[in-house]
Hints:
The protein has 444 residues and is of the alpha+beta class. The protein has helices at 3-14, 25-42, 106-127, 149-155, 213-222, 245-252, 259-266, 279-284, 325-338, 364-377, 393-400, 425-443, and strands at 45-49, 56-60, 69-75, 95-97, 100-102, 133-139, 164-167, 179-184, 186-195, 201-202, 288-296, 306-307, 310-319, 345-354, 357-358, 382-385, 404-408, 422-424. The strands form 4 sheets. Strands 1, 2, 3, 6, 7, 8, 15, 16 and 17 form a 9-stranded mixed beta sheet that branches. The protein has a 4-stranded antiparallel beta sheet with strand order 11-13-9-14, with helices on one face. The chain has a 3-stranded antiparallel beta sheet with strand order 4-5-18. Ligand BES binds at residues 108-109, 142-143, 145, 169-171, 187, 352, 354, 386, 388-391.
Amino acid sequence: MRASHLEDFYTFLRFPSVSTDDAYSENLNECAHWLIEKLTSVGLTAELVPTPGHPIVWARNKHQKGRRTVLIYGHYDVQPADPLELWDSPPFDPVLKDGYVFARGSTDNKGQILSHILGVQEAIEQKSDLPVNLHFVIEGEEEIGSANLENFLHQHREKLGCDVVVVSDTGMVARGVPTLSYGLRGVAALELKVIGAKIDLHSGIFGGAVANAATVLARLLATLHDNKRHVAIGGFYDQVAPLQDWEREMWKKLPVNSDEQILEASHAPALVGEEGYSTLERIWARPTAEINGLGGGYQGQGTKTVIPSQAMAKLTFRLVPNQNGDEIVDLAKKHLQKNMPAGATLQMTSGHSGTWYLTDPNSKFVKAAERALKKVFDRDVALIREGGSIPIVSDFRNILGVETLLLGLALPDCRAHSPNENFPLENLDAGIRMNQAVLQELAA
Ligand code: BES
Ligand code: MN
């Protein structure tokens, strides 16, 4: 690994580009400016595109008629680093340990998108040009639903015309096993607030006589699943396309991803999920309802005898083909309103929503990517779906009319969104070679 590549990686990681929290806006801005400088120094034309949220970084080489055009997408924003006390080293102060770089965003998505930038840098250094017309689109709002990127695609639809999109923001089934995802789950967010009395009350003076907002919320949230862990919202599964036999067979033959390996990577005491489905099917092909955050009442040291006036929960639903996010959120709202216990009121606010994605694993572009991956990793390619979401991918199809190749470099224990997120330099290097091989194969 070149020292300058490592330096670039560290510099990129030192920006605390947490998109969900306004306190970091300036850091996102600075991170985007650094990318512009980096892409320009590589020999590309780069521009910063402002949005009502965080800016988009857009770069391209000199396009020539008659060549394939490839759009490489990634994101420079990251998830919040909390809980900070669980990190072994500060999240925005990268450290190298046993070949792995630890920092928030190292895998998701800075290491992965940087490997493409460095791949392009090396190719231009060696051959003074690329085999294809290239766009880089690197946004700062992926982790909050890509709300402003859709508009960017609409506005620049003509200029962004391309044959295929390449994204490295998904996983590898195991170290050294090249992995192409032909599917992603969608996601839709909903925030709940239960309001009881106007103020917190003495639980001795009023306890037993008024509704407790936290109790109400707990009872309400418990109605989301039945005792077989199916989602209990009426109509939730109506549009779900069942897993196909060929997919089930293909997944059985994957060299890895046994329940033991998934259990190990999860650091959970046991695997549990919807009854009647395998673990991979639950993650890759079944929808879920998750509570991502929950609050209310006294959280400080010791005890406080109080009836909380308010309680809140942040929910997201993972969606699969052919569910519609707006419909699912509507069904959820109806279900929650119907099941609301007496004595309090419920406020519901829908948040971001992104569509699932499913592409043909036998398309000519997938085949080209498979050849490239096989060359670089010297192993057969695992074809999988992913449980995670990249909201803009369905818009590349709907707005630009092109399919996306999801070439993941994240390892099962990368700890994306968790403390001690890490990325192996081995994959930064593999990503550089993958970028060059993929552009070569796509050019042909
Ligand atoms: N890199 C992930 C998507 C991902 C995760 C793909 C796991 C494959 C496996 C991406 O950055 C991400 O986390 N997206 C969010 C989107 C959401 C906040 C709108 C997600 O999936 O939670
Ligand atoms: Mn990501």
